[in-house]
Amino acid sequence: MTSIDDLAREVGVSTATVSRALRGLPRVSEQTRQRVVDAAVRLGYVPSASASGLATGRTRTVAVVVPFVTRWFFATVVHGAEQVLRERGYDLLLYNLAGDPAARQRLFGTGLLTKRADAILVLGLAPTAEEVRQLRSGGRPVGLVGASVDGWPSVQIDDHAAARSAVEHLLALGHRRIAYVGGLDDSPVDVVVPTARRDGYLEALLDAGVEPDPAYEVEGRFTMAGGLAAGRRLLDLPEGPTAVFAASDEMAIGVLRAAREAGRSVPGDLSVIGVDDHETALFFDLSTVRQRVDEQGRTAARQVLALLGETDELVPERVVLPTELVLRATTGPPA
Amino acid sequence: MTSIDDLAREVGVSTATVSRALRGLPRVSEQTRQRVVDAAVRLGYVPSASASGLATGRTRTVAVVVPFVTRWFFATVVHGAEQVLRERGYDLLLYNLAGDPAARQRLFGTGLLTKRADAILVLGLAPTAEEVRQLRSGGRPVGLVGASVDGWPSVQIDDHAAARSAVEHLLALGHRRIAYVGGLDDSPVDVVVPTARRDGYLEALLDAGVEPDPAYEVEGRFTMAGGLAAGRRLLDLPEGPTAVFAASDEMAIGVLRAAREAGRSVPGDLSVIGVDDHETALFFDLSTVRQRVDEQGRTAARQVLALLGETDELVPERVVLPTELVLRATTGPPA
DNA sequence: TTGAAAGCGCTAACAG
DNA sequence: CTGTTAGCGCTTTCAA
C-alpha cells in the first residue's frame, strides 16, 4: 500500500505538494502536478479514505437508509442515487432496515450515521419527531424520499393526487363499490405514503358522493403476498367490490392473482389498478399510476450534494414529481 | 461531536482506558468500564470510524459489488449479506455497476475497493484474470457469489445441474423442440452463469438424443423485456419450439407474455420454465428451478468474516447450494 | 510555487 | 489495572 510519503519521496517533493497536486488545488506548477500524477498512476497510489476523512472531517460517503432493499421501488431509488453520487466521487453506505424496528432505532438513536457519512438519505420513512431531533443534532444534511420534514430537502410524489386520479378513473368507468388495498399496519416503515394514498382514495369517493365502506379497506402490507390475501378477503365479501385500487403495483398483482383463483375475470368482474408502474406491471397489463422512481433517487442525491457544496445547481428544497395515469387492460366498466 | 478525549476527561481516565473499556478488551476493571460506558451513553459518544480506521488499518466495512441493484436476485443477495454483516458490526459499501463497463474497470482497476473496505464481495461477476490479479494485490479477502476463483471463497448453485433438471423435466413431458432463452451477450456481467446454464441445456438435449437447433438459442438479456423479445422471435419461427427453458424467471415471464400476445396457450401450446423462483414466479404459476438467494448473500458474508477472523465458524471455502425443481402450471406435455 | 509542521481521533505497545 | 507516547496517512496553515 503506497502512501503519500512514498509518492512524495518518489517524485522528490513534499507530501503537501502531492496532496495539492492530486486534488487539483492551485499553487502547484503544472509541471510538478504532471509528475505527481504520473507517479501516482505508476505506483497505483490511492489515498486512504480514513486518513483524509480524519484530516478533513468529511468522508465523501453518503449513508442511504432503506426499509427494504429487496423491494423494487427502493432498489430503484438507490440505483438512481448511486449514479449521481458516484459521478461526484461519493460512496454509498447502505443501511437496510429490512423491516426491523430495532435496527431502525439503533441506527437513528446512536450518532452512527452522522459519524460515518457526510450526508444521509432516508427513503420511504417518515422520521419521528425524536429521530428528526437526533438526525438534526448530527449536523449533517439529511434528504428524504417519500416524506418531508421542515427544513430538509425532500422528493416525493403527490400521493394524495395519485390515489385520486386512480380512483377517479374507476369512478368514471362507473364503479361505485371500490376497495382500497394498502398498508395501514404499524410496520416500521411507510407510515406516510399509505396514509396519503388512502386519504386520496376516500376523498375521491366522497367527492363523487360515494359512501366509503370500511369493509373495503384492507391491509396489503405492500407485498404481492399481502395483496393476494387482501384480494381473497375482498372477494369473499358477501357484496364484494367491483374495483380495487391498490396502493402499489405489487399488491395489485396479488389482487389479480386472487381474482384468477376465484375465477373472476379482469376487468369484467373486477377492475384493478395500482401505483408505481412497476417493471412487472406491463407484463400483467396492469393499469397503474406511474411514477419516475430512479429520478427520485437522483434528485435526492443532488439535493444533499448541493447542501454539501458539491454542485452549483439550484436544486429546489422540496420536489414533488408528477405522476401519470397509465391505462392498460385491468380496468374497465363494471359488469 | 464528542471525542475520546472529552470522554476520558469526563470520566477522569486516560484515552487508552476509554478505548479498552469501550471495545470490551481485558485489562480494565469492571468498575471503570461501567463508568466509561455510562459516560459514553450520556455524552452520546460514537468513535470516529476514520480515526480508528487509520489507527488499525481496518475499516469494519465490506464493499459489495453488484452488476444491477435493481434486479431482484442481486438486491436479495445484498439483503442477505447485509444482515450478517450488520450482526458483526460491519457496514456495507454498495458499488452498483449498473451495467456500465467503464464503472467496472474504474472500480477494479484502481485500488479503490481495497483501500476502503476490509473485504470485498463480488456478486454475479466472473472477474477477469486481470481483475483477479488486481484484487489479489489488494491483500483483502474477496468473496464471490455466482462464480468462483481458485483460492477465494465462493457461493453458487450448480448452474449446469439446475439447467439440466429443468430441461430434463421438459424432455420427460415429451418435448423435443426445446428452446433456450439466456444471456449470451457481451454485457459486463453474468458471463459464467448463462454459459453454464446453456451448457446444461445442451447436454440434457444431447443425452436425450435430441439435436440442438441453434435457432432455438435466443438472447434474453436476463430481463423481462429481453424475454419478451426472445419469446416473440421464437414464436415467429416457422417451426417454433413447444417448450422454452429460460435461464431466469424474469425472462420466462417475458416469454409468457409473448405467448399470450401471440394467442398461444400455456402450457398447451407452449411450456415455459425458468430459474430462480423469483418472488413473482408464484403469481404467474411459473414452473422453475428454485434457489435460495438470500442464503447466498448470508453465506458469502460469513465466508469473508471468517477470513477477517470475526467468527470461529468453519465456513467451507467453496459452497454450492442445492436447487429444487418447482413444478407449477406453465409446463405440461406438448399438444 | 513549495515545504515544515501541527494536528485530526483513535489504537497499541510499553511502562509502571 | 492504568497511563504515556508514538504513530496511522492525510490536510492545512504558515513561512519561505
From TrEMBL, chains A, B:
The keyword Transcription applies. PROSITE patterns: HTH_LACI_1 (PS00356), HTH_LACI_2 (PS50932). Residues 2-56 form the HTH lacI-type domain. Coiled coil: none annotated. Keywords: DNA-binding, Transcription, Transcription regulation. It comes from Nocardioides deserti. CDD domains: HTH_LacI (cd01392), PBP1_LacI_sugar_binding-like (cd06267). GO terms for molecular function: DNA binding. It comes from the Bacteria. The keyword Transcription regulation applies. This is LacI family DNA-binding transcriptional regulator. SMART domains: HTH_LACI (SM00354).
